[in-house]
Amino acid sequence: MLVVPPPEAIEAMAAPQGLEESLEAYVLRLARAKGQAVANLGIEGTILACDTLSEVDGTALGKPVDRDDARRMLTLLSGRVHRVLTGVWICRQQRASAADGPSQRPLEAVEESLLKMDPFEGSLLEWYLDSGMWQGKAGACGFQDERLPLRLVSGSGSNVVGLPLERVRAMLDDLDQRPT
User: Fold this and answer.
1) pTM for the full model?
2) CATH number of 20-177
3) N-terminal to C-terminal alpha carbon distance within the chain
């Protein structure tokens, strides 16, 4: 297995969510851009790309830019249920030429999970912000982070950490059924 991250610029250069674009369409567009960037490198094999965002009351929460942004997001999530959406893009590419493109039509899906964050304030919030665990995480929090008052209401726990294993497995099974 070869792990090839997409160029860092892909996510930074992506257009922001459009006014008429659903969060589902947006997160899928981001995953697609990452996957196509790797496919365009001429990599052979199965290419998997994902992008995950949190959402509360229609507001998308990406990765916080700094501690103040993390505090804002965590305060918004405190005591509430929120959605975590992951866009998944998978293709099999058998030709090494980037100009040829993927050898099979990519599969795309969006997985949704619901999380509930108990009230999160005071010394626990300050400890979490000091820990830096919020960095690089959609919504400034990680389901797997210690002491975080966050619980799964519905959906996949693996989706919440950015790789919906059940969905990916089903998509890989679908790819296996396709003629080459």
Assistant:
1) 0.86
2) 3.90.950.10
3) 20
